[in-house]
Design goal:
homotrimer; 337 residues; alpha/beta; five-stranded antiparallel sheet; four-stranded parallel sheet
Chain lengths: 337, 337, 337
């Protein structure tokens, strides 16, 4: 299939670039990866990447914007954009961008994100505004923490006070540590059809915390292991069908609330990171307003996307499908920022 | 593909309805979901569902039976049938039903189920008829417990005696808690070809028990967490190939024993829920005589069903394939009850 | 598709035989399984197996070699070959064999394997040459241990000394127990294109160790459970995209080092079994020079093989693709031994 009207799909070489560009190629687009020298070898391995634009550092991104615009590239953001470009450069990007940049402020500020979720009536864990209020186990998260760094767990007020002394971050949120299993729900909201899809679900694979269960408690004693939550991978999940109704509605309320809070609201892929308790309630601990790495499990399709499409549709491919549709219906302005 | 001779496939809106109806549609059937008002929105999201029959409560099911019969619907039971309709109403259903209703009594009674498995020489955990016999950690299961509710774990006789006081259920089974990993094996027995297939395997995702391993033992102390086994999802597994021979044989013996115990025996999808010990022995802790929720992982195919079919075959689709075959060979009476 | 020039693909009935033979059939080969009587029933269940050659014991393998050669069979080794045939018989096999037998000595000897990995600058856990040096938790592995038997964990020197008394094996390696999560990376190196692919990634499912996390620490007390690492299955994983560059490079260095250490070096499927620490470093605890059982998860395709091929490619099928290519380009001598 020819590239739809000469548009190309581009992204930064990291996070879910392989999925995004494979999906784009499957939908007939030419593909571009912007890569730093240490990653060029990785992206050269794959035939579906048509072009590698090398830059010395991601901070040099503005220097190639003209070239990207000249090539009719559409940028697909992922979790490394804010991390590598910074919020400001990200916002100022001139290359057509899939998604609404206005969500960035609301997402990046932990308190505003909480406000958004509360407005959407999405349940969130209790927050302790200061240490003296702590009456349950807590998870302490630095503002802007990503990939599982900048977290710590404290059993109670006393342990919080002890651990906060060696915590490097000044701005943080103290949340109740909700005991339950986690599920990361991958949504896609189409501004063209106004429909929300659940495309897949995953669970994170975190080191060292996901290895602790394999050490018997009597062996843990004396090892002095502190849990860390560094995400190094993902494994697939499905949810009980009776929980899906709730999952869809939480997602829809998140979209509706966004439309009230910021012009245009949230569209494209997003993720609610939930804890599910023994009473089968969801508590959302984080909102990600773009493709998340857990979708990489489903490059060859997912049990949920199979409910909508008779082909293997990952989130990356779903993005390309939306862009192709917008091009064909001359509605690119509805999906780009 | 046209709907085979006007038959439609129907099920209750819950559990694995999406999988069942997607599979039916892929095999050319028209599809019907019977849904309560709170679930209508969920099932409206999917194009492969041709018709939603809304009823105020599942207890109102008998009122739409005539309509289902008129439309030549074939009902596919799943785990929510007994839970929502009750054993009695389930048995009295007049709509053509995929499966043998005679298995219901044997399955729903924990002692009869145990007798069935023992007759099949399928290893089951030791049972303690009364508390004084307890000489090992035990799992106590209320009769009719489903979805992980109505269970508790006790380390020894003393802990059993303490915990039984606050247990709400009067009828329960005390079984040895076999230490090992779990595997839920999804079988399909075809009464047309007399062949047994293993279609997929999963592991349950239970809250809060599957989150405990992520809390270091020194942090667990003082939190006073009691494990609960509420199933909220599933994750995929494959077994060592050398264990498959045994898995197939256990499944076959379960079918053969059923044919001795009840006219017609067991057919269609069923599941053996096994614990595998370090000596690689299976202990079966539960038999489910229908499609189980773990099969929802494999809507887009499974590594095991790929060994039989050159298309993506879920258990839901496999059921539709069997019905289609029976229609074409005029053998519907062999598979319906 | 006709069998390519009359060649057939054969393997021993165990481990990943189903995957290998299904993949071979999908690429147009006739297939043969060599099975012991207890496994014949299992392999009869599958249509893609054209021929079952029954032998009383795997030790009788030499007796059917002539027949296999007459039929133009190409043998695909897997993890059960060394276990069942022994290193010596394995080496002396006269049937054309996919892979380089010269890797067997380097792989089977724990010290030589370590030397190989060190030459490849692949990080390995610290080794303690004798007990007095132990200053960290250790994993003790018997030479030739397979499938998770012959391992034990010790928290410190004292516990090592206590446990070694009842350890049945005389030759063993004492390695630091690296605390982190595991990932088994499935590679394929093509001697025809000189390219390395990552086809899939898994995590092992081990009994009883993967059930321990589900028992709260206060319940573990008094049960006296010792962890065992008997592999009974596998579950799927993907890695963070930023870790893939490193994963590819470790794999390539392993191939390059092999070419220096042994004529021809390593080709075909192999696996690096890694622990990933909270600093996102890999430590490789084992190298397997052939198809591993974790690839059985991906008989119907994997998120990684989908990046190279627009069809469902398992490691078993990838092997058949390589053989077909070698036949067509008259380069069978490059891939057989």
């Amino acid at each position: 299939m020819a590239a739809p009207k000469g548009y190309k799909i581009a992204t930064l070489g990291s996070h879910s670039a392989l999925q995004i560009l494979k999906g784009a190629k499957d939908e007939g687009f030419k593909t571009i990866v912007i890569a730093t020298p240490d990653r060029v070898a990785l992206y050269k391995r794959f035939n579906f990447i048509d072009q590698i634009l090398q830059i010395p550092n991601f901070a040099d991104f503005p220097k190639i914007e003209k070239e990207l615009i000249r090539q009719k590239a559409i940028m697909i953001p992922h979790g490394s954009f804010v991390a590598y470009l910074g919020l400001d450069q990200h916002r100022k990007m001139k290359v057509p961008y899939f998604g609404n940049k206005k969500v960035l402020d609301w997402e990046s500020n932990r308190l505003k994100q909480r406000q958004w979720l509360e407005k959407a009536h999405v349940p969130v864990p209790r927050r302790f505004k200061n240490a003296s209020e702590i009456d349950a186990p807590v998870l302490v998260k630095a503002y802007g923490a990503a990939g599982g760094h900048g977290y710590f767990f404290a059993k109670n007020k006393k342990e919080f006070r002890q651990k906060i002394k060696s915590f490097k971050h000044k701005n943080y949120l103290i949340q109740e540590y909700v005991i339950g299993v986690s599920a990361y729900i991958h949504y896609f909201y189409s501004p063209l059809t106004k429909k929300l899809e659940i495309l897949s679900i995953d669970r994170r694979y975190e080191t060292n915390v996901d290895s602790l269960g394999r050490i018997p408690s009597h062996n843990q004693r004396g090892l002095g292991i502190e849990p860390s939550f560094v995400v190094v991978g993902n494994s697939p999940l499905v949810l009980r069908e009776s929980l899906l109704a709730n999952a869809f509605e939480m997602g829809e309320r998140t979209v509706v609330a966004s439309q009230k809070l910021m012009p245009g609201g949230l569209w494209g892929p997003f993720c609610l990171e939930a804890i599910i308790t023994p009473t089968q309630e969801f508590f959302v601990i984080e909102l990600s307003c773009r493709i998340v790495a857990g979708t990489n499990l489903f490059i060859d399709g997912s049990p949920y996307s199979a409910l909508y499409y008779n082909k293997d549709v990952s989130t990356g491919r779903r993005i390309a499908m939306e862009i192709k549709k917008a091009i064909n219906f001359k509605k690119l302005d509805k999906i780009l920022d």
